[in-house]
């Protein structure tokens, strides 16, 4: 599989820009994982960290679900990987966890997120509330936060990928 990263529009309306940048960062994470073996995507960055590319993909599946399904529309959906006993289970890989499952789950959550956003305007408020302020979030805020979340983790992915096979790139 070859990931096609599409540059966001240079001159578009705000929503198109936000969705373009979010998709660009989603594609960047997929690209950073491309062409690696199951063992490589499971390899931790550097001890004692457990951070791996597979863990990042699983984490972003949780983040997509959390912000778009739970917060934006208030869907009563549980976590994918995380549990009450292990809140960071997305990063803690077990032998039975596979790259194919992680990638497919992440892509499925992205598709649900895209469909979920269609009826919302950027200023529409979420059904879910901030755990800190009890205030709702606008879709604009959620998009901006998701871009920030991916950008931060894509920086992690850059370093992990370089450590694995020397591949670098934006």
Describe the protein in words.
- By secondary structure, this protein is mainly alpha-helical.
- It has one domain: Four Helix Bundle (Hemerythrin (Met), subunit A).
- It has 5 helices and 2 strands.
- It has a two-stranded antiparallel ribbon with strand order 1-2.
- Helix 1 packs parallel to helix 5, helix 3 runs parallel beside helix 4 (99-117) and helix 3 (53-72) runs antiparallel to helix 5 (139-165).
- The chain is globular and about 45 Å long.
- The mean pLDDT is 94.
Classification by helices and strands: mainly alpha
Task: Compute the number of helices.
Answer: 5
- Helical content stands at 40-55%
Q: What does the radius of gyration come to?
A: 16 Å
Distance between the termini: 19 Å
Strands, count = 2
From the spread of the alpha carbons, the general shape counts as: globular
Strand content: under 5%
Low-pLDDT sequence parts = none
CATH class: Mainly Alpha
The CATH superfamily turns out to be: dinb family like domain
What string, H for helix and E for strand, traces the elements in order?
HHHHEEH
Mean pLDDT figure: 94
The CATH architecture is Up-down Bundle
Question: How do the strands of the widest beta sheet line up side by side?
Answer: 1-2
The biggest sheet, with number of strands, parallel, antiparallel or mixed sense and barrel status, is: 2 strands, antiparallel
State the CATH topology.
Four Helix Bundle (Hemerythrin (Met), subunit A)
> How many distinct folded domains?
1
